[in-house]
């Protein structure tokens, strides 16, 4: 009897190898208390806007478009911008942190963004219950994609685990995800003045 051991797919590697950074995001969010007030929440949306702007910047890369066929349906920078307007907050300015990022690292940035969309169900509920916000006012950036969070996530994971993505570039994708987590962490620290 022959036993075949298969290496974990890219999506599983990303989940495993960025677990500590993911946990750090949870700790920063607990410190920030974004649902304690609309003012706090506006700070979160400002950080979200800048991060999403970084991610959407990557959509122009033809190699990213080829790797994620439904790219035009993803990204939440416009939703974050509309939410800031609803909240009476101005859009923050700043340079694009993903300038110079390309495939395959760009997939890591998308992994962090898409993972946050999947995980935003709890945040969306908090925005509704604590702050009275909705998918039409103030909490667009947390709302599910029209087809639902799970379906969009499954399609994205399928793109990550596509057999045409050379396993030799998987480490670079993970490096990109680490950079994206670091960027969002810095944004939270700056907008909430966390020590």
TrEMBL record:
Question: Which GO annotations describe the biological process of this protein?
Answer: heme oxidation
Q: Which InterPro entries match?
A: Haem_Oase-like, Haem_Oase-like_multi-hlx
Its domain of life reads: Bacteria
Q: Name one GO molecular function term.
A: heme oxygenase (decyclizing) activity
Q: Which organism is it from?
A: Pseudothauera nasutitermitis
Q: What is this protein called?
A: Biliverdin-producing heme oxygenase
Show the Pfam families listed in the entry.
Heme_oxygenase
């Amino acid at each position: 009897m022959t036993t075949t051991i298969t290496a974990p797919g890219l999506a599983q590697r990303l989940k495993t190898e960025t677990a500590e950074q993911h946990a750090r995001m949870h700790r920063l969010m607990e410190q920030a208390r974004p649902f304690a007030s609309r003012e706090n929440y506006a700070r979160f949306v400002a950080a979200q806007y800048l991060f999403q702007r970084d991610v959407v910047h990557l959509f122009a890369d033809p190699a990213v478009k080829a790797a994620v066929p439904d790219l035009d349906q993803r990204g939440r920078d416009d939703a974050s911008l509309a939410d800031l307007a609803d909240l009476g907050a101005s859009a923050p300015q700043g340079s694009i942190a993903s300038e110079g990022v390309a495939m395959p690292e760009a997939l890591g940035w998308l992994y962090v963004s898409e993972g946050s969309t999947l995980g935003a169900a709890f945040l969306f509920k908090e925005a509704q219950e604590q702050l009275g916000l909705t998918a039409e006012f103030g909490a667009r950036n947390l709302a599910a994609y029209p087809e639902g969070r799970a379906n969009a996530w499954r399609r994205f994971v399928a793109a990550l685990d596509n057999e045409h993505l050379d396993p030799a570039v998987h480490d670079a994708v993970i490096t990109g995800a680490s950079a994206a987590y670091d960027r969002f962490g810095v944004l939270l620290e700056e907008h909430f003045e966390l020590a």
